[in-house]
Amino acid sequence: MLLWFESNGSHRHRRVTLPDHAADAARRTLRASLAARRRGVSPGARARAAHLVAHHAERALHLKAGWRVALYAALPAELDATPLIELARARGCHIYLPRIDRARRARGMRFLKMTGALKRNRLGIDEPDNPERIGARWLDVVFLPLVGFDRHGLRLGTGGGFYDRAFAFRRFRQTWHAPRLVGLAYAFQEVARIAPAAHDVRMDAVITDEGIIRCTTG
Fold first, then answer.
1. Where are the domains of the chain?
2. Rounded to two decimals, what is the model's pTM?
3. Quick check: 96 pLDDT over 60?
4. Which of 45, 50, 114, 131 is in Cβ range 3.0-4.6 Å of 95 for a Cys bridge?
């Protein structure tokens, strides 16, 4: 991971490479700060933001019947995806939720159809408990939770790396970037710049309570 800045010296600009651990430490600090602010959102403000995000998603994406849409069962501090799940269901979309691989070493993520009862995993996340799954490559739209983001599509998650591994194939495509990856966030979770890491998979857009942000690739 590289960070760089330009010197103010009169003779020339200078690029400085910081060691990986310095950038990792910066990410951890930023993650902790944003996560604390996210935990401070009141239940009423969280509910309002969730409905606004669903409204903006409907206007921007025009969800269509038959689309294969991945969402998530939100943890208490995350932006609630329930209104968007209800909207996608009303539009006739096929809804999938992620399930974390039970094997700790695999650290993988699979997407299972949202049918029947949900079971809570060891991380406290509700997951589908059925055999009907889909490969990540065949989803049309994926809505992701996040801790922080920037307008270059970089996403700061909780640090597990599950989404980056699930969609790593997107980093090697030149033209076709399906499925679309769309983050869901409060507007205050936007930061000016997140230092990129080699494993990062960039998002196409982020929808906040204030509207939609279409990301660039930097």
1. 20-214
2. 0.85
3. yes
4. 114
